[in-house]
Design a protein that fits this description.
The chain has 83 residues and is mainly alpha-helical. The protein has one domain. It has 2 helices and 2 strands, in the order βαβα. It has a two-stranded parallel ribbon with strand order 1-2.
């Protein structure tokens, strides 16, 4: 499971930080696709796509960290990894 937070550019930009995260998200999705193609089980979560906003790249330190932990707990349970 790979989490991404807010403020990631959707198009190339001159803002080097935003553009880096845009590329990172794209690479994360390609990585997950490749892992899954060969029998792995990787999920990319871009929090704003779930309606969860206000997160940095330190999302487990953000104010909504329990909401993020709940997503991880649910995913682990669905995969049978919470025993």
């Amino acid at each position: 499971m790979i989490f991404y937070g807010d403020h990631i550019a959707t198009e190339p930009t001159d803002n080097c930080g935003s553009d880096q995260w845009r590329a990172e998200l794209s690479m994360g999705r390609k990585f997950a696709e490749l892992v899954n193609k060969y029998g792995g089980d990787c999920t990319v979560i871009h929090l704003p796509e779930l309606g969860i906003k206000g997160n940095t790249h330190f999302m487990f330190s953000d104010l909504n960290n329990l909401e993020i932990a709940d997503l991880l707990t649910k995913w682990l349970h669905e995969k049978g990894l919470d025993d």
